[in-house]
Amino acid sequence: MQNITTTLKKYFYLWKRSQVPVKQSIKISRIDNLIIFLICILISIISSYKLLLISPLNITDIFSWLLNFSEVLICSGILILVSKKENPTISSRQIILIITLLLAVQATKLALASTISPLSMIIPPALIISQGMGSITALAWVSIASLSWPDPEIAINNNLFFILLVCASIVSLLGGRIRSRAQLLQLSIFVPIGSFLSQWILIGKDKISLINQQDFVLSNGDIFSDSLLLAIVMLFTILFIPIFESIFGLLTKARLLELADKEKPLIRRLSLEAPGTFEHTLLICGLAEEATRMIGGDIDLIKTGALYHDVGKLHAPNWFIENQDGSKNPHDELDDPIKSAEVLQAHVDEGLKFARKNRLPKLIANFIPEHQGTLRMGYFFQKAKEKNLDINENYFRYKGPIPQSKETAILMLADGCEAALRAMNINASDKEALETISNIINSRQNDGQLDDSNLSKGEIFLIKRAFLNVWKRIRHRRIQYPTSKNNTFS
Ligand SMILES: [Fe+2]
Ligand SMILES: [Fe+2]
Predict the structure, then answer these.
(1) C-alpha of residue 310 to centroid of ligand 1, in Å
(2) For residue 151, how far is its CA from the centre of ligand 2 (angstroms)?
(3) Cα–ligand 2 centroid distance for 281 (angstroms)
(4) What span, in angstroms and rounded, lies between the C-alpha atoms of 5 and 14?
(5) Which ligand has the minimum distance to the alpha carbon of residue 417?
(6) 425-451: per-residue pLDDT in tens?
(7) How many whole angstroms from 435 Cα to the centroid of ligand 2?
């Protein structure tokens, strides 16, 4: 009998899963797809056409050109797939940026390969890609840019090739983790110094030229000027990264930290005009950060996303309980549950407008609708049911979408648990707190809100434990320490 019940439950779960709308992948318009394809073709032509210039041309040459052409085309395709895999929400503009950088490098190689060191051509774009799109995409880009050389007559020194791969990989790996502009500057100084020393050791001292020589920057094989040029190009790249951020919508760690600054005008407004919401936001930041650290997610992203998730409440702060300060509740005066539900939905719609006005990156703006998902506004739904039994539940559900990433899902769970944890009795045991957290999280899970988030059962368990840890911290802060009247030390 128990087996039948388990099987039925399993089928019921599968049926429920099948009713969930298929996760929408990023939509790239036909024109963008065509532009991307054309750039890939152009890269392949630039990378291989020199093979056709040999005279007399025979079948083997044509075959090796065809091989080279398709190899570069396939590699470009793989690069796009890798970038999509690492950044599921990547936009067509960002894909165009990645392949345009590849096109620019291939064209530069063709024009300047004999005068500029490959380090200065490949490392700076790798820094932009690792900052904006992540280390794996940057590594994939570096491998294509380093392996494909359009001019068959140019042969790179094996040692230089090795140094290029090591330096570009270091920049790709560190670039994805660097959290401030100052660290970027350090990278732009230490990588050229490192490349200089390694070239000195592996290639030789005789290739070093100093400042008093005429062909200071452009002499090929000149280790000192090559490294200096690399440092200059990297510094210029760092200067231009903020421009790339705004044109291509890149979300670098440094930009995330800048957005998380509580002195930003929108956050200052939130703290002044909606102090209750601001307090709620700060507590949620703590909960979400702890949970994200537990499951190994993007902490900087969730901290910034949490800060902006309820900015839409600025459109009518006193309609939200946390800002009411014991005064009259406007919802009671309105006495219309449907209109009240519309006010609640408006905090999402207005939040998205604030995000657009303040040019918040898409990944941050996603937290605004996804933290509410398609949750039911239970209180007003009950009120409406008391008045009219045939009321449509859809009027009392947020418009969604449900969380599409682990980070937005964690924020939804933190948002749900915050009020309950804040209101919990100071003497409540850990078991009671965990039970409250589990009930809230399980209800959201059973409602299908976590279906698109990719959170595993193990991760949900860890999130519960993380919220419990934060609750213990809150409880500890609220404990009044005994103080004696004569206590003059602190
Ligand atoms: Fe909200
Ligand atoms: Fe909230």
Answers:
(1) 5
(2) 57
(3) 6
(4) 14
(5) 2
(6) 878 888 999 999 999 999 999 999 999
(7) 21
Please give the distance, rounded to the nearest whole angstrom, from the Cα atom of residue 308 to the centre of ligand 1. Answer: 10
The model's pTM: 0.77
- Tell me which ligand sits closest to the C-alpha of residue 350: 1
CA of 177 to the centre of ligand 2 (A): 28
Q: From ligand 2's centre to the CA of 206, what distance in Å?
A: 65
Residue 413 scores a pLDDT above 90: yes
354 CA distance to ligand 1 centroid (A)? Answer: 14
Q: What spacing in Å lies between the alpha carbon of 181 and ligand 1's midpoint?
A: 32
Distance 391 CA to ligand 1 centre (A): 24
Instruction: Tell me, in angstroms, the distance from the centre of ligand 1 to residue 347's CA.
Output: 7
What pLDDT digit, counting tens, does each position of 201-222 carry?
Answer: 887 655 544 434 434 334 455 7
pLDDT, tens digit, for every residue of 146-161?
888 887 777 777 888 8
In the chain, what is the straight-line distance between the N-terminal and C-terminal CA atoms, in Å?
66
Residue 277 CA to ligand 1 centre (angstroms) = 9
